[in-house]
Amino acid sequence: MMKRLLLAMVGCLWLAIPLSAQSNKLIRELEGKRGVLQKQIAETESLLKSAKKDVGSQLNSLAALTGQIEERRRYIQTISDDMKAVERELVSLERQLSELQQELGEKKERYEASVKYLHKNKSIEEKLMFIFSAKTLSQTYRRMRYVREYAAYQRMQGEEILKKQEQIRAKKAERIQVRKAKEGLLKECEAEKAKLEAQEKEQRTLVASLQKKQKSLQSEINKKRREAARLNARIDQLIAEEIENARKRAEAEARKNASRSKGAKSPAKTKPVDAYTLNKDDRELSGSFASNRGRLPVPVTGPYIITSHYGEYTVKGLRNVKLDNKGIDIQGKPGARARAVFDGKVAAVFQLDGLFNVLIRHGSYISVYCNLSSTMVKAGDTVKVRQEIGTIFSDGTDDGRTVLHFQLRREKEKLNPEPWLNR
Prior knowledge:
423 residues, alpha+beta, two-stranded antiparallel ribbon
């Protein structure tokens, strides 16, 4: 009877607590990160539409399709990683729930014992007799305090039970939410795998078509190599000039500092002029740029696909097709603009085959933006990170294909830009 009374009391109090919607923090974070990738993939799918049959167009379509496949594989891997994280969260929730339920059981037992004790000594007369049967005044005071403290202890026990029940309810709701998230991830993963399979089939079809045009294909590859060689030769020349200009600035600063030291009759020794390659401002900018490796923005506005990676590589399925990229090629939507990846100063703007190319110096680092139909900056301009510097050329003869060729150098050293970008 007493146990039923206890459960009824606790049950009534339980119903009085409002049921608030739970939201698991991990699920929110994973959904936010995945949502960015999902949007990126959905938007870049429109970049793959091409019905042209000539070799150049097909080769470009193959590059775009390959880039999209890589993005989808990356997204599937993200889903897989998220599922593992969600599974770990479920295990953790089950453990927490078990611990809470055990604590609740212990608290209920203690509360039931206190209720039984009070039930046996419930009348006012019994409490008064207990207090006034004390033999001394101090004992009377202690007994009064004991009665008050025991009543407060009983209330606290009841409140702790309610709090623990609320924690259990919230944890169960969270567990349901995480389980639903896991089910959703499984479905999404299967759907993405189906799309990937369809794209890989399309890729194989394109490769098969190009294999039949080996002579035209080789001619197109040779044409691209010649164009790339001309562009890189011009970039190398301008970078060499910029390095020399930076050295001269550093020399001038060194002479100025040496002159000041001499005028002040300072005993401090100065380094020889030829030891300086950067002045103070360039050194600070270089350090700041280097510390942002992996956090630089992608130099294209809007959705994009990386269609050609850095370095030498072969095209899968095509024999004798070896490409060498000194940077990366990023395809965006028609109207996309190139933007600066970091604060810096425009070192050069030059034209080649009617298209603009921009070099921006960031201390000893130089970023290069090629294949622009127009520019918004000129040599000597100071630019800020994410500042738009020009519109990327859209090829009207190839379904508006819009590709930025992006390079990154540290003085004359060519760097792979991808590890520097925040993707």
